[in-house]
């Protein structure tokens, strides 16, 4: 049952990065869109994420519940030493969701819409930034359980060159996913070209920030190169990601957009595999050489049995309902139903 729970944990993180990441990325694209095209970008984005924007956070909730119930030592360590970036990320999620709701469903359209838009776009940037910072902090050996002062325990546990670089890389990946997804949401050639251009810019930014991640890892002694290129799985995954990227841009040049989302999702999946496979099951790497392992630091066997059964049974109800939600809204959109409020 432990392996079932670990699979659900990995899948929930993966789905949150793919679906929630594209969701955040749409706000990032809006932030960096010219005023003249911002309304068009906003309308296209709402058509794409409007039906399921809140459902995306379900994957984050599942991951948190799994850690809280099944791996309490790992959960408590992360929530204590990374409580500052976690709080910022959660506040960003709340602010973003609130602004999204008010700017689309507010009964009165007035100057407050400008404030809602700013909160939405900036929180769309801040939230994945700190999500990436948290991810980078868990594997960068910066969490120090023996720290005896506030800065070492609660600030320098996450504030490092590597963690910030991972955060910026996460932002670029989210923007790239959103641009690729939104290409298929418009039939207007002008808008399609705009999103293709944004996808290219986000892709270039991802390459630059990716280089920054490798530079930071080298400077801070993090064996990132070994994690990626020191095993057959990592080499195969990074090769597949590179080849799929070449194919993606080839299809873009040919004007074929049907499989772009699959290719973009595949690339992110391969990147996730390359960065997690080598140090699995160590989900948190501590300062001084210690680690927290999914195989060692888990809860009681009876707790794992109950959690595993709850996840298996819950998925039987949640997943079909979610797929039907997406299908029903896509069908309405295809029929020309207006979802704007």
UniProtKB/TrEMBL annotation:
Protein name as it appears in the record: Cytochrome bd-I ubiquinol oxidase subunit 2 apoprotein
Broad class of where this protein is predominantly found: membrane
Query: One GO CC annotation, please?
Result: cytochrome complex
Topology relative to the lipid bilayer, per the entry, is: Multi-pass membrane protein
Protein species of origin = Filimonas lacunae
What residue intervals traverse the membrane? 12-32, 53-74, 80-102, 114-135, 155-183, 195-216, 228-252, 259-277, 304-327
Q: Which GO terms describe its molecular function?
A: electron transfer activity; oxidoreductase activity, acting on diphenols and related substances as donors, oxygen as acceptor
| InterPro entries to which the protein is assigned, alphabetical | Cyt-d_oxidase_su2
Q: Which GO terms describe its biological process?
A: aerobic electron transport chain
What superkingdom does the record give?
A: Bacteria
Tell me the protein family, please: Belongs to the cytochrome ubiquinol oxidase subunit 2 family.
* Compartments reported by the entry: Cell membrane
| Record key words, sorted | Cell membrane, Membrane, Transmembrane, Transmembrane helix
């Amino acid at each position: 049952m432990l392996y079932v729970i670990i699979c659900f944990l990995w899948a929930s993180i993966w789905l949150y990065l793919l679906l929630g990441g594209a969701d955040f990325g749409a706000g990032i694209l809006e932030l960096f869109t010219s005023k003249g095209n911002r309304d068009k970008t906003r309308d296209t984005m709402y058509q794409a994420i409007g039906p399921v924007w809140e459902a995306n956070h379900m994957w984050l909730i599942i991951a948190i519940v799994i850690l809280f119930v099944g791996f309490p030592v790992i959960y408590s360590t992360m929530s204590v030493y990374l409580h500052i970036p976690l709080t910022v990320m959660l506040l960003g999620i709340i602010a973003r969701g609130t602004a999204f709701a008010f700017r689309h469903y507010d009964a009165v359209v007035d100057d407050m819409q400008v404030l809602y838009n700013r909160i939405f776009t900036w929180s769309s940037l801040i939230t994945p930034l700190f999500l990436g910072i948290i991810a980078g902090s868990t594997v960068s050996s910066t969490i120090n359980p023996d720290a005896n002062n506030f800065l070492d325990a609660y600030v320098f546990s996450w504030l490092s060159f590597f963690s910030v670089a991972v955060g910026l890389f996460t932002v670029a990946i989210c923007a790239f996913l959103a641009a690729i997804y939104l290409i298929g949401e418009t039939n207007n050639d002008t808008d399609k070209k705009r999103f293709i251009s944004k996808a290219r810019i986000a892709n270039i930014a991802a390459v630059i920030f990716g280089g920054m991640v490798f530079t930071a890892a080298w400077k801070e002694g993090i064996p990132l190169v070994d994690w990626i290129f020191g095993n057959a799985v990592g080499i195969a995954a990074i090769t597949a990601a590179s080849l799929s990227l070449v194919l993606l841009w080839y299809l873009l040049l040919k004007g074929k957009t049907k499989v772009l989302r699959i290719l973009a999702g595949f690339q992110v999946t391969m990147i996730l595999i390359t960065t997690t496979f080598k140090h699995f099951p160590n989900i948190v790497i501590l300062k001084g050489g210690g680690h927290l392992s999914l195989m060692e630091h888990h809860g009681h066997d009876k707790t794992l049995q109950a959690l595993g059964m709850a996840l298996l049974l819950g998925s039987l109800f949640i997943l079909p309902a979610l797929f039907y939600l997406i299908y029903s809204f896509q069908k309405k959109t295809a029929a020309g139903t207006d979802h704007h409020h």
